[in-house]
Specification:
By secondary structure, the protein is an alpha/beta fold. The protein is about 15% helix and about 25% strand. It has 4 helices and 23 strands.
Length: about 300
């Protein structure tokens, strides 16, 4: 009899403890939700010195992700490396004005991501951040960003609209390579360098407008842009890498606004130092096309520089 009473007391105590524990967890969860402003619930966070970084999808089951500007009373200041890599459920992302950074591969291979709103507060976007986001149709890079990193939008095969902010100085290697649906691109006057293969195999690209501050165009930069018909190289350009316009099969005109002091060389050291090489006037737009698209290695294999 006493044993049965003791067991009953223990059972009641255990049940009470479970209830208290579950209630506490529920209170914590509700408190955490109430401690963030409007945004998607149940995302995963990591605390850092100045606030919180979003580190993953957590147990959130939403498809239209809205990141909150605060969590537990502190600002959400960025998106961590690999935070949403391969997250197939996401179709759209809204980033708050509290965020200043988007990490390495943060949204890479989010195959169903169609749109993302990046605010002016963001100053850095990591390499591969939107790599292989095949459903992404448009992107506006805000004026707060100064560089587009390596392969940031590479393989975004449905990307049709790109607006590059007027503070961007450099476009990195393969930044937009393989964006097959992109038909036109305007490089703003702020940009000074276009990296190797930056727009390679953008097979739908028909129009490129280069800003008046571009100094260097990397090797293979526009190679494989088979529908590109013409391009004008502004006075500011002094370096063009190997194969920059190779396999641009529709190209009929390359106009150099400064035609007088161009040289070609087979050696990268000569190219970088602007020494040696063979003087080659760029006076004829159709002949210029032959220089850059010919299968004759004597031309397309060359580096080009202007003194």
């Amino acid at each position: 009899m006493k044993k049965a009473i003791i067991l009953s007391i223990i059972a009641v105590a255990i049940s009470f403890a479970i209830v208290i524990t579950l209630t506490t967890l529920l209170v914590i969860k509700v408190r955490d939700k109430m401690s963030q402003d409007s945004g998607s619930a149940d995302l995963a966070y990591r605390q850092v010195e100045d606030g919180y970084m979003v580190r993953g999808i957590g147990s959130c089951d939403e498809t239209d992700i809205v990141l909150p500007s605060t969590y537990k009373g502190k600002p959400v200041i960025g998106i961590a490396d690999y935070a949403f890599t391969g997250c197939a459920q996401i179709t759209s992302v809204t980033i708050p004005n509290s965020c200043t950074s988007i990490g390495l591969s943060a949204f890479s291979s989010c195959l169903n991501l169609e749109s993302v709103a990046i605010p002016d507060s963001v100053t850095s976007i990591g390499e591969y951040a939107f790599y292989h986001c095949q459903s992404l149709t448009g992107i506006t890079i805000p004026g707060s960003v100064t560089s587009i990193a390596k392969e940031t939008f590479s393989g975004c095969t449905n990307l049709t609209s790109v607006v590059i902010g007027t503070s961007v100085i450099s476009i990195g290697k393969e930044a937009f390579s393989g964006c097959k649906s992109l038909t036109s691109i305007t490089i703003p006057d702020s940009v000074t360098s276009i990296g190797d293969s930056a727009f390679s195999t953008c097979t739908g690209l028909m129009s490129v407008t280069l800003g008046d501050s571009v100094i260097s165009i990397g090797s293979w930069a526009f190679s494989g842009c088979e529908n590109l018909m013409s391009i004008t190289i502004p006075d500011s350009v002094t370096l063009i890498g190997q194969y920059a316009f190779f396999s641009c099969d529709s190209l009929t005109s390359i106009v150099f606004t400064d035609t007088s002091t161009w040289y070609r060389t087979y050696y990268s050291a000569d190219w970088e130092n602007k020494t040696g090489g063979e003087y080659t006037p760029m006076t004829d737009a159709s002949t210029n096309v032959a220089y850059f698209t010919s299968s004759d290695y004597y031309y397309h294999w060359c580096y080009w520089y202007k003194k």
